[in-house]
Amino acid sequence: MGTFRSRFPTRLELFQAYAVCVFLIQIWSIYNVLRAVPSWALAMDTWTLVGTIAYTQAFALVESMIILALLVLLAFVLPGKVYRDRFVAQSSVMLILAAAGAILAHFKGAELGIWSARGFLVWLIILLGLIGLASLILARFNGLCKGIESLAERMQVLATVYIVIGILSVLVVIIRNV
Asked: Is residue 144 within 8 Å of residue 137, measured between CB atoms?
């Protein structure tokens, strides 16, 4: 039983990786909501606007949980020396690179040809290659790992605020649908 548990990250490591995940996803969600609110305010009443914003924030909370589950699955499947021993740093770098890739695809996807099947496959291979390279760099430089883990630790406070916003959003969605 001890070896089975050793394949999973600790609760603190999970929360630190989740903090990075929630931070990135909620920031992106809030940014996009704030871009749309002026036009929504013209077309919706206040309760509908609150509900629409709540849906986006609730979805961001659920999305971050799904991504964390995938990271935990990755930690379970991969050898400990490759991923599990540096779970917070590895996960944080993966999340940051994936978020940067998604943002770049969002803004420049059509120009870069990402939205075709071939372009998306090339984009995905490049992104996975960058994640692999970053993983090798993290394995080589212990100080870099410590710095990333420190950053993840500092994100916990802000992530807690985002988690509360997400939970309140889920409550609003439930109230609207009852």
From this structure: yes
**Would residue 104 count as lying in a domain?**
yes
- Which conformational region is residue 113 in: left (phi greater than 0), alpha (psi within -120 to 50 degrees), or beta? left
Q: DSSP state, 36?
A: H
Structural domains of the chain, count: 1
Is residue 1 domain-resident? no
Instruction: Indicate the burial class of 151 (C-beta count within 10 angstroms; 0-12, 13-18, 19 or more).
Output: middle
136 burial type by CB count under 10 A (0-12 exposed, 13-18 middle, 19+ buried): exposed
Question: For residues 110 and 11, which has the higher predicted lDDT (pLDDT)?
Answer: 11
Q: Over the stretch 67-116, which tens digit does the pLDDT of each residue have? A: 999 999 988 888 777 777 788 899 999 999 999 988 888 887 777 777 77
d(C-alpha 139, C-alpha 8), whole Å: 19
Domain that holds residue 105: 11-177
